[in-house]
Amino acid sequence: MAGRGPAPKDPSKRVRRGSDQGARLVLVGGTVSQPELPDDVDWPAATRAWWKTWGEEPISSEFRATDWAFLAETALLHAAVWTGELKHMPELRLRVAKLGATLEDRARLRITFAQADEAEKRAGRPAPAAGGSARERYQRPVAVAE
Length: 146
Fold this sequence. Notes:
By secondary structure, the chain is mainly alpha-helical. The chain has 6 helices and no strands. Residues 1-22, 117-146 are annotated as: Disordered.
C-alpha cells in the first residue's frame, strides 16, 4: 500500500522552491554614515541613546540614505513613546523589527554577524591562507586502497 494522502506535487511546478528566487544583487559604491538627529525636535535622552546605539550596530555599516531616513522617522515615534504617547508602540515595534533590532528579528531576516578570523585565533587555529579555492585550502588527501 502506498503512503497516505495525494502524491507530492512536481517540484518544477511549485511556487515556493525553498530559496530566494526573487532576490537581486545590487552592487553600489559606498554607504552613508549616520546623520545627526534633527535639531528642531526636543529629543528625550532615551531616544538620543537609542539613536547612538543604532549607529554603533554592525548592521548600520550597510545602511543607505533611505535606511537612515526611515530610522530618523522611527526616532520620532521612539521619542513620542518615551514622552508618554504609548499608542505609537505597535508601529515602533514593527519598524525596529524591519531593521533587525532583536535576535529574533535578525533570525527572521537571515542576518548573521561573522567574526571568523577572531574566532579562529581564539580557538588556536590559524586563519586560512588567502587565495585559491576552498577545495585547495581545505581538501585533505584521500587514501586510496589498491
